Here is the input.
Amino acid sequence: MYILGISYGFVATAVLLKDGKVIACASEERFNGIKNYNGFPQKSISYCLSKAGIKGEDLDLVTTPYTNLPPSHFSLDNKKSTQADIIFQTSLDH
Here is the structure.
């Protein structure tokens, strides 16, 4: 199973795991020379994929950090399901 983790804010970085082991990891600043680059790590993602010899379509999961707390009314137990609830629950089921 290939999992790509993407941090696209301060110190933009990508990491690729295969079956739970780190295959490649790189910060975007290595490629663009901008210390603590704040943005999307496109070149880091490309590096990680090429290091493993795979394409984006070979990824099983792509993750990003959830840096904000969910709204106080957010609950999977309530009877009303929002789109976020469905996506969140689906990710827990897999």
Helices lie at 29-32, 42-52, 83-93. The chain has one domain: 2-93.
